[in-house]
């Protein structure tokens, strides 16, 4: 399996586009067009395997309920008979002095939703952002390999 598709979902303004652009270009540019959806493509080499990554950046969504979203993602995967790879990511960690959701709440939600949990900052943490996306891609590709067998 050489194609990996990753969707970055969440409410408007949480920094979905900023995370994707940071991962792809290493840069944080501050303002991102939000009027239309975008699919970014990148070729990656993970563990010596060439992969085609598609990153889906939706145009802004209304406020989705995260619990509902996680449930829908797991359900969709079950219907297609694949294991879901869902990461719950809290962005803007540089603004943690005005945080509204505690790390513990995030961790608990991730545990209940069987997701991996990350807190990071598109503005300040290039390495963490790159690591997080790499893990998503690696998990998704291992998942595909397991299903191919
Ligand atoms: P989207 O609607 O989820 O795609 O959100 P955007 O990527 O357009 O980001 C919304 C706003 O949040 C923009 O003004 C970004 O500059 C800002 N932003 C995104 N990530 C961060 C971050 O990690 N830290 C801070 N301080 N601002 C961020
Ligand atoms: Mg956006």
UniProtKB/TrEMBL annotation:
Catalyzed chemical reaction(s): GTP + H2O = GDP + phosphate + H(+)
Keywords: GTP-binding, Hydrolase, Nucleotide-binding
Superkingdom of source: Eukaryota
SUPFAM superfamilies registered for this protein in UniProt: P-loop containing nucleoside triphosphate hydrolases
Bilayer-spanning residue ranges: none
InterPro entries: P-loop_NTPase, Ras-related_GTPase, Small_GTPase
SMART domains to which the protein is assigned, alphabetical: RAB, RAS
EC numbers, comma separated: 3.6.5.2
A molecular function GO annotation: GTP binding
Family under the similarity heading: Belongs to the small GTPase superfamily. Ras family.
Protein name: small monomeric GTPase
Species of provenance: Synaphobranchus kaupii (Kaup's arrowtooth eel)
Lineage of source species: Eukaryota, Metazoa, Chordata, Craniata, Vertebrata
């Amino acid at each position: 399996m050489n194609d990996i598709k990753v969707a970055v979902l969440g409410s408007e303004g949480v920094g979905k586009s900023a995370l994707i652009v940071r991962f792809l270009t290493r840069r944080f540019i501050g303002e991102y067009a939000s009027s239309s959806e975008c699919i970014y493509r990148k070729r990656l080499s993970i563990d010596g395997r060439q992969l085609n990554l598609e990153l889906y950046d939706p145009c802004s969504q209304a406020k989705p309920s995260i619990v509902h979203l996680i449930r829908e993602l797991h359900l969709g995967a079950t219907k297609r008979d694949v294991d879901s790879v869902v990461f719950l990511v809290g962005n803007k960690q540089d603004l943690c002095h005005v945080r509204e959701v505690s790390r513990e709440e995030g961790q608990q939600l991730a545990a209940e939703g069987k997701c991996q949990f990350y807190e990071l900052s598109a503005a300040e943490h290039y390495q963490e952002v790159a690591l997080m996306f790499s893990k998503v891609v690696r998990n998704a590709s291992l998942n595909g390999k397991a299903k191919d067998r």
